[in-house]
Structure formats: C-alpha cells, structure tokens
C-alpha cells in the first residue's frame, strides 16, 4: 500500500540483527568447549554441568526466585488497590499525592531508591530494633515498593477502559461494593493482573542495584552473583545460565503470543 | 417434598469477604478507606519517609562506627542538640567531579536517546506497516529481549564487543586490525541504545500503527515525494510517540549504573556510578545521600514536572 521502497525493510532488518546478534553469539558460545569464551574449539555442554554443580549460583537463583515470587505478590495486591483507588474513587483527600507517589518510582533512578531504603532500614534498626540486619525481608520490601508502581500502571489502564455499566448493574441488583469487586471487576481485570504480576516478577528477578543496597551478608541474589563474576571478565557458566534464562523467556513469550492470538477472534472488542 | 425443595431459590452462597466486610464495618472501617490506606501507608513508609531520611543523613558527616554517619540529634546534659552539616553540599559544587558527572550523564543519556530514536523509528514504522501476519511476530521479537535479563544482555554485548569478540573476529577476516571498543564511552552509548531500544520502539509502534493511511495517500496523490510526506505528515503526527519513547530511554539512562560500570572505562563519568562508588567504595554515606538529593532536585523532579505537563496536554487533546 505504502511503498517506501527498500529503506524500511533494510533498516528494520539491520535493527533486528543489532538486537539479536549479541544474544545469538552468547547462546552459541555457551556450547563452546574452550574456557576462553570467544575461541571456538568444539561443542560441549560442560558449562551447563559446571553451572548446576555451583552451589553459590544455585543458592542465589533459588533466593532470587523466592524474592521475586513474594515481591510480585505483594506488589500485585498493593498496586491493584492503588489502581482501584485512583480510577474508581474519583475524589478523595490526597488523591494527587497518592497518584504522584505511586508513579514516582518509575522515574526514580535505582541508585536513589536503593540508597534511600537502605538508610531507612539502618535508621529503623537503630531506633526500633527492626529489621534486625538486612536480607531477604528487606529485599522483598524494596522490590514490592518499586514493582507496585508498574502493577498500578498496568491495572489502571485496564480499569480505565472497561465498561462501568457492568459494575453499576451489579450494584443496582443489590451487590455490595466488595462483592462487585470480586464477582465482576476482578474477572474482567484478570489479564491485567496476570501481566502485572509477571512484569513485577521479572523486574524483581532482574534487579541488581536496589538489591545490592538492601541485601545483607549471605543474601546475594542471582544478579549480584552474576555481576561480581562478570566484573572479572567473560565467564562461560554465565553464558550457560543466560542461555537457559533466554530459553525460558522465549518459550513464555511465544506461548503468551499464541494464546493472545487464539483468544482474539472470540472477543469482539468494541 | 424433593420437588418442592428444588423450587426454592438456592441459598445465598456464603463468601468469605462478606464476613470480612461486616467485621470491618462493625469496627467502623469502610472498604473504601482500606483500599486507599493500604497502598498509601506502604508508600509513605517505604518511599516518602526514606527520601526524608536521605535528606537528613545528607546533612550529617562520615564517622567511623555503626552507623557510619554522625547523628543529627544528640543529647548533652539533658538538652537536645541538632547538628547540621552543609559540607556535603558545598563539596558537590567545589569538587569538579560531581558537576562533571551530572553534565556527562545528561550528555550521554541525551545522545543515546537520539541514536535510539534514529534506529528505533524505522523499525517501529516498518512493523506498523508490515502485513498483519508478520506484525505480531515482529512485535514479539522486539518484546522478547525486554523480558529477558537486562544484566545478561549487557553482558552479551560485552562479550560481543570485547578485544577478541565476534566483531573483532569478523573484522580480522577482512584484514582489519582489532578495534578497542570495550571500556570506552562508545561502548556505553552502544549499551544504552541496545538495552533500551525496545522501550523506544513500542510507544512509537503504538502511535504509528494508528496513523491514517488515507492521509499518506492524499499526500502522494497531490504529488508529494515520500520524504516530503514523511516530514510533513508522518513525523508531526507521531510526535507523541517520539516524546513517550524518548522519555522511556532518557530517564533510566541518566541514573544508569550497570552499563557504565560493565562497558565503560575508568574515565566514563556517570552520576549513578559516582553515587555507587561514594557509598560502596568510600563508604561515605552522607556524601552519597547528598549526591542523591542533588540528583533528585536537578534531574528527577524536572522530569516529573515535564511528564505532568505532557499528560495535561494529552488530556486536553483527548477531551477536545
């Protein structure tokens, strides 16, 4: 329809090459037998073996998954409540303050968020005696705080464009607001809740900076362990780990896309 | 008997939240208050108060001990004394390092945003104009790196650009001597563009896909060349997408820590890295706090105000 000749396809292809070439080279070299990551000397899966025999790496991965699970869940509850408050309760005292505060973590550099929470935890420890030391709990609190902003944005946009008359009908039929929320609102916004939770989960799993500030001795998350390894140079077991993570993510995104494409014809969106 | 039973309306299903609701109402707490209070209290305690604490500690000075800063309030002989130090802030202005780091962060973030826009725009446009069956696959390819680990993508790039990495090996095939790319500002630019490209493409795509084809046809029918059509129709109409995408790249790029520390050299100055070093390497918590407050005032607050203004403009356009 709009013939822009050769420019757009070529520019887009180059862009995709730029996005994927480093990832593909990383995946290929994860199967390299040589310790020097960039010199190919034969196919081998030994780095995967080394990865699964590394207790530090496995421990950090398990810790990160736990933190991501709890943070995403807390962020989901708080973020959804916040979105409901902002979208459904048009007027209440402090609405602008709440709206500003919940979106602030989106523009706040990680180094500031991390530093601020660490200083809070230290001050709380010396005055209240809690939290005693830093570790998984302080990381979960920190991650929940910045993840709830993302959940709130996702849920807010879904709440804003759904048909209010459904809720009103339920209220007219005598359902209490809480019942309306659980029976009508929640099922409708469920897809947003799922994507909000997944977003929070990945963000928490991926965070290096905030976790570095608020973690304590013995609670190094996976990104912290990777970072300390990578600082010393390229290491083949990190390539193996990256390949596994990229594989899982690719499968997940692929499945989500297929599900989305399948469900689309059924729902006739206005 | 049984037939009579079945004609009765089914008993209302007992739901746990009905009881919760009644219980709360009995104590005088409405559901609405609770919905607002829970996130509000959390954000106050774990977001607003910490910023106040940072401000407080920025007025203290480093000491050896736990915690490694002097207390603001001391009690001496029954009187409470408040000691505030402005030395950290004075230092920010007198030591060239900090001002240079702020300016350099803004410069690096700005240039990378422009490059990301130049690379991302044609990609977004190509995806928006692609045939339907291709569009979703291409979009998926843009989103995929975004869901995989940020740290690992920076790492992938470092392997790619290293002294004996893929690029230099390719150059070697053509007889070109290896180029030093790692530990330079160049690597930082590439790193920011590489990791934030999806953030630029997605808002641009959402905007460009809505572009009315009839306008472009009309322009072509009236004899405009493709470039002219692009400059006078497509580009102005996609301005909201350009602004949204640029903000999504520029804002996180300014405070970036991982990219300059893994890809940049010792001379790559970025404020996020300076704050990190001040805290972890020098363990000067009050100085790090002052850097954070200055960053908040000089960078974050202007961006928030800008965004608010932007939202207001958009709301106005929507209501028109």
Q: Layout of helices and strands, plus pairs?
A:
The complex is a heterodimer of chains A (270) and B (320).
Chain A: H1 7-29, H2 46-52, H3 55-88, H4 95-107, H5 110-128, H6 136-160, H7 164-172, H8 177-206, H9 209-214, H10 222-231, H11 236-263
Helix pairs in contact in A: 2-11, 3-4, 3-6, 3-8, 3-10, 4-6, 6-8, 7-8
Chain B: H1 2-7, H2 16-27, H3 31-58, E1 73-76, E2 79-82, H4 87-94, H5 96-129, H6 132-147, H7 150-161, H8 166-173, H9 185-208, H10 213-221, H11 226-237, H12 239-254, H13 258-263, H14 271-280, H15 285-319
Antiparallel strand pairs in B: 1-2
Helix pairs in contact in B: 3-15, 5-9, 5-12, 6-9, 7-9, 9-12, 10-11, 14-15
Radius of gyration computed on alpha carbons of chain A: 23 Å
Residues in helices of chain A, as a percent range: over 70%
**Looking at the chains present, what oligomeric state does this protein adopt?**
heterodimer
Please name the fourth-level CATH homologous superfamily of the largest domain in chain B: MetI-like
**What structural category characterises the helix and strand content of chain A?**
mainly alpha
Give the strand order, joined by hyphens, for the main sheet of chain B: 1-2
Low-confidence stretches of chain B: none
Helix percentage range of chain B: over 70%
Number of helices of chain A: 11
Largest sheet entry of chain A:
none
Q: How many domains would you count in the coordinates of chain B?
A: 2
CATH class of the largest domain in chain B: Mainly Alpha
How many strands, which pairing sense, and closed or not: the largest β-sheet of chain B? Answer: 2 strands, antiparallel
Largest interface: A-B, 91 and 90 residues
* Gap between N and C termini of chain A: 26 Å
- Which outline of chain B best applies? globular
In CATH, the homologous superfamily of the domain at 56-232 in chain A goes by the name MetI-like
C-alpha Rg of chain B (nearest Å): 28 Å
GO cellular component, one term (chain A): plasma membrane
Organism (chain A): Devosia epidermidihirudinis
Protein name (chain A): Spermidine/putrescine ABC transporter permease
InterPro entries (chain A): Bact_Polyamine_Transport, MetI-like, MetI-like_sf
